[in-house]
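Per reviewer request, we include the raw input and output of the structure prediction for the construct analysed in the revised manuscript.
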Amino acid sequence: MKLSVWDVLSIVVLLAALIVFGVVLAIFANPTSSINPFPPATLPPTIDIPTSTATSVMLPPTWTPTVYYTPTPRPTSTMFPTETPLVLPK
């Protein structure tokens, strides 16, 4: 069986897709790799400045509301559906 031009081009496109998938996977796994055209910016060092910290608010022991019974309306009877005649125009 002879390979046509379209068969060869299909194989080339599939190989290119696999290579692109591999490169994207490598960049996703390691964003700082040398193959990444847009590496993440380097963060400046964190400056540790001693500051006063506010005391956290002490919550009361029963912060959650008390559960109480909510009355629901009693079920009522509804009317049975009636037959609606259907008339199609001619």
